[in-house]
Design brief:
By secondary structure, the protein is of the alpha/beta class. 44% of the residues lie in helices and 17% in strands. The N and C termini lie far apart (55 Å).
Length: 321
């Protein structure tokens, strides 16, 4: 009689544990990732929307931000597990107390696709780079757009030829360009296509740079050899590769998804050439040591990086499997 009374209790206890234990496991694999409104951030939104992250045992929350500065502050405050951004932001955050590791590359400049460009305002009289000399250009200082602008101008033999204006909020930068309050701006896609469709003139773009431009980085664990963290990165990268293949296969479907997540304005859609993820550069490609040195050298020259370049293995994922 005594054993019969135990049976319901044990059954109930077993059922409770069967619910509680999976929840504890899934909580360990929850990732909160900050993103900017750039075209290639689509891969994170889409992998969550399509259930690809979930299929790889990950619960990913995608949190929109309007500037790299805001993302950096959130990473330092510990409110994010990772972010979509650029190598400059990763190096800055590592130096400022938010250690993280680059786990994927979402855009890499190639001759077949543009990701950034210098656009002259529809209200500007400048139709060439020479005519723009000495006039205002909106950027986010100490960000990838600042770096790309310097790289483009240097390639053209026109270094320091524009009057840079630091305007952090991307929507504000866009509006000032279209209204003629600023003569030009360095913009990412699909905003570049948007302003081009509204009469702006794209004078230079990044197709000749051959550099990783946007990356995804995750906050490093307290224990450097954390096996669970390494496994999480492997599953995260596998999910990105699967989603990239889906986007490449059905570009028009995902162009619609870009509009859903406000990465592509309806008026820009007809002008925008849908992005592709090209192996081996994206999404599983990782910046080389030379790439890191290239960015770090620019940052040191501009007094952005002050403590020297961290070891490559400390900031780029090394899969020893």
């Amino acid at each position: 009689m005594h054993s019969l009374k135990k049976t319901p209790f044990l059954t109930v206890l077993f059922l409770l544990l069967s619910f509680v234990l999976p929840c504890a496991s899934s909580a360990a694999d929850t990732l909160k990732i900050g993103v900017l409104p750039a075209a290639d951030s689509l891969i994170l939104h889409a992998a969550r929307e399509d259930g690809v992250f979930a299929a790889h045992g990950l619960e990913v929350e995608v949190v929109p931000f309007q500037s790299a500065l805001e993302i950096g502050a959130a990473m330092r405050a510990g409110s994010l597990d990772g972010h979509f951004g650029d190598i400059i932001n990763v190096l800055m955050q590592n130096e400022n107390g938010a250690p993280q590791v680059i786990v994927a590359t979402t855009s890499h400049s190639t001759p077949s696709a543009r990701f950034f460009g210098l656009a002259a305002s529809p209200r500007s009289s400048a139709k060439t780079l020479a005519e723009l000399k000495g006039k205002t250009c909106s950027i986010g200082r100490a960000t990838i757009v600042d770096f790309v602008l310097d790289s483009l101008l240097e390639n053209e033999g026109a270094a320091d030829s524009l009057d840079k204006r630091d305007i952090r909020q991307i929507p504000v930068r866009l509006q000032m360009l279209l209204s003629g309050q600023i003569e030009s701006a360095l913009l990412p896609e699909p905003l570049l296509s948007l302003v081009e469709g509204q009469g702006a003139h794209v004078l230079l773009d990044d197709r000749g740079l051959d550099l990783p431009l946007a990356v995804i980085a995750l906050k490093k664990p307290d224990t450097p050899s954390d096996a669970a963290f390494t496994d999480r990165i492997r599953r995260f990268r596998a999910a990105l590769a699967e989603e990239a293949a889906r986007i490449n296969k059905e570009p028009e479907r995902y162009k619609d998804m870009m509009q859903k997540f406000r990465l592509l304005a309806p008026q820009a859609a007809p002008h925008y050439a849908m992005l592709r993820f090209e192996e081996p550069l994206t999404p599983l490609g990782l910046p080389s040591e030379e790439d890191i040195r290239h960015y770090a050298s620019w940052m040191e020259k501009n007094r952005i990086l002050k403590k020297g370049v961290p070891a490559y293995a400390d900031i780029v994922f090394q899969d020893e499997k």
